[in-house]
Amino acid sequence: MIRTFHFALGLVIIVVQIYVLSNLTTLLPLFGPHPDVPTAGREGAGEAIFELLPFISAGLFIFADTLTDRLSPRSQFTGEPLIGNGLWYLLGYGTLLVSIALYALLASA
User: Fold this and answer.
1) How far is residue 86's CA from residue 51's CA, in Å, rounded to a whole number?
2) How far apart are CA 67 and CA 85, in angstroms?
3) pLDDT, position 53
4) Which of 7, 13, 60, 102 pairs as cysteine with 92 (C-beta 3.0–4.6 A)?
5) Using H for helix, E for strand and C for coil, what is the string for 25-69?
6) What is the residue extent of each domain of the chain?
7) CB 7 within 8 A of CB 61
8) Of the candidates 76, 64, 56, the residue with the CA atom closest to the CA atom of residue 13
9) Which residues make Cβ contacts (< 8 Å) with residue 58, sequence separation at least 6?
10) 3-class state of residue 74 by DSSP
């Protein structure tokens, strides 16, 4: 049940982020493309982080089992992972809150 909820939450985040990115100039007019600001290299790195952070959050929600299997250290005696899915869900919620805070900050500017 928890896995299904987080999987669905990840899919909803992806759909909302695609909608936001496709309507970026109308939703956040200050963050749209400007002819004076380069978007490549170090100057565009903040924009890339802003746009990719919700996708990272969705990936943490959707692939928590895979991340637990691949990245968690194992117990010497039982072979079970020491870090469970809860850590990846917690990191997903953290990145989601940071991205929501960035959207709120840019929407109020």
Assistant:
1) 25
2) 8
3) 94
4) 60
5) HHHCHHHCCCCCCCCCHHHHHHHHHHHHHHHHHHHHHHCHHHHHH
6) 2-108
7) yes
8) 56
9) 9, 10, 11, 13, 14, 17, 92
10) strand
Stronger pLDDT, 13 or 24, i.e. the higher one:
13
DSSP state for residue 84 in the 8-state scheme: -
Which phi and psi angles does 16 have, rounded to 5°?
Answer: -65, -40
Find out whether 94 and 101 touch, Cβ atoms under 8 Å. no
Could you report the per-residue pLDDT of 31-79, keeping only the tens digit for each?
A: 666 666 665 666 667 777 888 999 999 999 999 999 999 998 999 999 8
How is residue 80 annotated by DSSP? -
Output the pTM of the full model: 0.84
